[in-house]
Amino acid sequence: MIAEIKALAEQQGDKLEFIPIGHVMALQKDLERFKSETRLSEKQIWALGFSSFEGIPKYTQSIIIAAIPNNPNKSLEGFRVQMIDLLKKSGYKAKSITSLPLKRMAAQSGLGFYGRNNIIYVDGMGSRLSLAALATNIPCDINAWIDALLCHRGALIAIFA
User: Fold this and answer.
1) What is the pLDDT of residues 8-33, one digit of tens each?
2) 130 backbone dihedrals φ, ψ, rounded to 5°
């Protein structure tokens, strides 16, 4: 099912990755630890306040993180509705989650990478994109999760060179 959903997204010019819920929960713990162990400015605390892991349904086995190109013919909401309908027709549950740290999840899942000024780039799409996340009960055993310190293009090139 995962391969079929990825192929359908690619046909429409979108890209997506599946993240097992275990990685998402580990990310939540990492961010909570970071907040408690680091002296943050008021601006940093304010910025971190936009990410929340609340609202993830109990049935969730994976999170779909998607990159949708910004262009007049595409809509982020249209993507969400289409994916939820597709998953429901296939017998799965799905819910849009808007409060997750989407850029961090995109980078750590391998969907994209951080560039200058904390901007996410996706190969073949650049940085003119929107990110979306859907919680689903599709089982996911994909274990591709990149360490946060390696999510910059330069770091990955240095390691694999």
Assistant:
1) 999 999 999 999 999 999 999 988 88
2) -120, 150
Delimit the domains of the chain by residue range.
2-160
Burial 53-92 (b: 16+ CB within 10 A, else e): beebeeebbbbbbbbbbeeeeeebeebbeebbeebeeeeb
pLDDT in tens, 99-137: 999 999 999 999 999 887 788 999 999 999 999 999 999
Question: Nearest 5°: phi and psi at 47?
Answer: -65, -40
Q: Return the DSSP state at 69.
A: E
Supply the pTM of this predicted model.
Answer: 0.87
Question: And the tokens for 109?
Answer: 């899942």
